[in-house]
Design brief:
Structural class: alpha/beta
Largest sheet: 8 strands, mixed
Order of helices and strands: EEEHEEHEHHHEHEHEEHHHEE
Strand order of the largest sheet: 6-7-8-3-9-10-12-11
Radius of gyration: 20 Å
Oligomer: single chain
Shape: globular
Number of helices: 10
Helix content: 25-40%
Length: 311
């Protein structure tokens, strides 16, 4: 990582809610992200880990400004020191900030693959596209195919190519590797690492935690729509004794190679969140303070943790 003092992306106190109908015409706000924080520096890969429903993909949409109209966003999002207003998000989207989306439905079903990867850029980056396709083991004929003619793995590689070809300063890669062979997944992450060697940055959203540990500089752990810990990736490779939050430790122990030790209970539903620490109902270290109050974020041993007991 090219460590610099200035931040590329800074997010703190981020909350996202959705206006929904509950009974008849009665409306309510469903808060799905609360007090979330994340910092990305130039020249690094920050992986985001956490179970499904923890808010990882919603964060990507919030950064890009592509949440649905019934979403309300509160908090602070800054890119290169500027507030990410809807107007600025529109200017940066697909240029300085690019998304490799999780769903292959982002591909236009009525448009061939080649033009979709090239986008509206002039002149057409055909040589760059050919290079990307070659590295992803996509045959030249892929450019003439429609999305329905692609396998799931091919579509995923096309989506990653479309993000990489932009030359963006920040790429948000949302589950970029499912459907790829191991070598193709490794090649995708190698290409993201090459970006960071040029001073650009990556947010890597993934369930493939092992790959995240190997290729990222830092890992942010999400739980029930908030950030509970941010730590150097090396800490996750060291083991639970190097981690700070009880959920991060549990996540490490739940990996197959670490004994597959699940913890009791479930991540709370967004409509029924506990009052204090969101992890308290499942935490073996909880006290009355944890149950009644939301812990502050603290700096501990070179990382950040939202926990009264993290040390």
């Amino acid at each position: 990582m090219n460590q610099k003092n200035e931040t590329l992306l800074e997010i703190h106190d981020l909350s996202i809610s959705f206006r929904m109908y509950s009974h008849g015409l009665e409306q309510r706000d469903l808060q799905v992200i609360s007090d979330l924080y994340l910092t990305v520096y130039p020249g690094e890969i920050v992986a985001i880990a956490g179970s499904s429903g923890s808010g990882k993909s919603l964060l990507a949409s919030a950064i890009l400004g592509i949440l649905p109209e019934n979403a309300a966003v509160h908090g602070h999002l800054h890119y290169k020191g500027q507030e990410l207003t809807p107007e600025l998000q529109k200017q940066l989207r697909g240029k300085e900030i690019a998304l490799a989306p999780q769903s292959v439905t982002f591909l236009d079903p009525l448009m061939k693959t080649g033009p979709q990867v090239d986008g509206h850029r002039r002149p057409k980056p055909i040589d760059k596209r050919k290079q990307l396709f070659q590295r992803f083991e996509l045959p030249d004929t892929t450019q003439h195919l429609y999305p329905f003619q692609l396998s799931g793995g091919m579509a995923r590689r096309v989506l990653v190519s479309a993000a990489l070809i932009t030359g963006a300063e920040l790429i948000i890669a949302d589950e970029p590797t499912p459907g790829m062979s191991l070598e193709q997944a490794l090649e995708a992450l190698r290409m993201l690492r090459e970006m960071t060697n040029e001073g650009k940055s990556v947010i890597l959203i993934t369930h493939d935690i092992d790959l995240a540990f190997e290729f990222s500089d830092r890992v942010a752990v999400f739980y029930a729509g908030t950030t509970v810990e941010t730590a150097p990736a090396s800490d996750f490779k060291t083991g639970p004794e190097a981690l700070r939050h009880p959920y991060s430790k549990a996540l490490w122990r739940a990996l197959p190679q670490n004994g597959f030790q699940p913890i009791e209970g479930f991540q709370p539903y967004a409509g029924d969140l506990p009052k204090g620490c969101l992890f308290a109902p499942r935490c073996p270290y909880r006290t009355s303070r944890c149950i009644s109050n939301v812990p502050p974020v603290r700096e501990v041993r070179g990382g950040e943790v939202r926990c009264y007991h993290g040390a």
